[in-house]
Write a structure and sequence with these properties.
By secondary structure, this protein is of the alpha+beta class. It has one domain (7-98). It has two helices and seven strands, in the order αββββαβββ. A hairpin with a 6-residue loop joins strand 1 and strand 2 (33-38). The protein starts with 6 loop residues before the first helix and ends with a strand.
């Protein structure tokens, strides 16, 4: 599938279909951003080709989403994000610092 011209589109459609089944909704401003609202809990999933950044308002929700993704896709959890698309991410007490 990777060698075909239509591979990126097919992968995106496959992933987006599955993630919507979990309750995520695609952002209207960025098609690679998906948002999940479950009661007071909130999760953001950013997809870039085959890399994912996932943030959730609770550890429980985060692990629940990761477990569901693992059931459907072969994936590795690299833990907290340090670099993404050439951007260094540092967590601080007040939020994140990107450089």
């Amino acid at each position: 599938m990777y060698g075909l011209k239509q591979a990126p589109r097919a992968w995106y459609q496959r992933f987006a279909t599955f993630i919507r089944q979990l309750g995520f909704v695609a952002s209207t401003s960025d098609t690679s951003l998906f948002i999940l609202r479950e009661g007071t809990s909130l999760a953001y999933l950013l997809l870039y080709v085959d890399d994912i950044v996932l943030a959730a308002s609770s550890t429980e929700l985060l692990h629940q989403i990761i477990d569901q993704l693992r059931l459907e896709f072969a994936m590795k959890d690299l833990g907290p994000v340090h670099f993404f698309l050439g951007i260094q991410v540092q967590r601080t007490t007040t939020g994140f610092f990107l450089s």
